[in-house]
Every structure is written in structure tokens, then in C-alpha cells.
Amino acid sequence: FRRVLFRSDATIAFRMDGVYRSKVVWSATPARRLSQGVPADDIFSKAHWKVNGRVALKNVSIGGADAEFAIWGRNITNRRYSTSQLFLPFANQETYDEGRTYGLDLTLVF
Fold first, then answer.
1. Residue 48 CB neighbours (<10 A)
2. CA–CA separation, 75 vs 23, rounded Å?
3. How far is Cα 54 from Cα 12, in angstroms, rounded to an integer?
4. CA 108 and chain centroid, separation
5. Are the beta carbons of 94 and 44 closer than 8 angstroms?
6. CA–CA separation, 50 and 59 (whole Å)
7. Which letter does DSSP use for residue 75 in this model?
8. How confident is the model at residue 7 (pLDDT cuts 50, 70, 90)?
């Protein structure tokens, strides 16, 4: 979504997106692992959405330069799901998504 502000060249832009990841099976033999008593959460990663967003104020004139100010966020819902697993005879290793992340951007064009 974009909108021109007042009578200047400045515009405000909103963007929101989602990234979907389907269920992932971490084992080549899930039925066998379940029968061995391994919990289902250690064999499967749940299907999930990640929501990201950005709001920007663009084309702001500052001393002969055009500026853009933006605030953005990734994984806004702060859901953390398993992204990979490694099964070893003596231990399991698991990696998770990054948690909620926010940031500010300032871009100058001169």
C-alpha cells in the first residue's frame, strides 16, 4: 500500500508478508522412531507461517537529498520452530528459527 502525503513528493508505504513452511519430517523412518518411543515433536516440525512487515516514509527532501525512513520487523509473532535436527547415537542437536527481530533503516540518495 502506498499513499502520497499532503502536497509533497513524500509517500508512506506499508508492506506485510507471510512465509509458509509445511510440515517437515526429520527422520527417514518416522514409524520406526515412533515405535522406539521418540516423541513426535522430535520427528516432525509443525507447518507454520512467519509474518514480516515494513512501514516506510519515502521521498523526504533533506538538504538536497532524498531520504527514506523505515521500520521493519521479522517473525513478528515471535514463533520459533525447529529448522533442522541431527540424530546421533549419544545426543540430538536441534536448530530453531530466529526470534522476533526489529530494525530501522535510513537511506539517503544524493
1. 15
2. 18
3. 11
4. 26
5. no
6. 29
7. S
8. low
pTM score, whole prediction: 0.72
What is the C-alpha to C-alpha distance for residues 15 and 72, in angstroms, rounded to an integer? Answer: 9
CA distances from 69 to 18, 24, 60 (A): 22, 38, 8
Band the pLDDT of 5: cuts 50, 70, 90.
low
Which three three-digit cell numbers place residue 57?
A: 516514509
Whole-number Å distance between alpha carbons of 77 and 80: 9
Pairing of strands 44-45, 24-25: antiparallel
Q: Which amino acid is at 82?
A: S
Determine the 3-state secondary structure of 39 from DSSP. coil
Q: How many CB atoms lie within 10 A of CB 12?
A: 15
